[in-house]
TrEMBL record:
Gene: LOC122131858
Keywords: Fatty acid biosynthesis, Fatty acid metabolism, Lipid biosynthesis, Lipid metabolism, Membrane, Transferase, Transmembrane, Transmembrane helix
Lineage start: Eukaryota, Metazoa, Chordata, Craniata, Vertebrata
PANTHER family linked to this entry: ELONGATION OF VERY LONG CHAIN FATTY ACIDS PROTEIN 7 (PTHR11157:SF118), FATTY ACID ACYL TRANSFERASE-RELATED (PTHR11157)
Domain of life: Eukaryota
UniProt-recorded name of the protein: Elongation of very long chain fatty acids protein
Main location group: membrane
Amino acid sequence: MAFNEFTSRAVHLYDEFLKKGDPRVDGWFLMDSPLPQAVFLISYIYFVTSLGPRLMENRKAFTLRPILIVYNFSSVALSLYMCYEFVMSGWGTGYSFQCDLVDYSHSPQAMRVRYTPRNQGTVMDLKRFTCIVAPAVPYQGTSTVPLS
């Protein structure tokens, strides 16, 4: 009986938590529930820590230099674009360096999304951490943060 009470209370708290989220993101891809993101993240962790190394242990390493050059230039270009978007979403279009109230309207400026990157093992750990946390942060920030 105690377990049923615990699970029903957890479901009730979860529903209340989601009700307080930003209604502007209802219906957005991967924003209706944290479950699809959790499945993607768990699958990614499993692949990079277990399945991927086992698949590659008896194979010759791939030559990825040309692909990595394109990837790195693309990353730099995307980072520059995200910096531009960050500035144009805030300080460049009317927000100040002080604490401003959150604009929950559907105006174009309010709907802009903000995203706030020599040991090989450390680099891989950082990459894994970034790939795991990066998708989760926008979900938390736009879907489940209470409006009031």
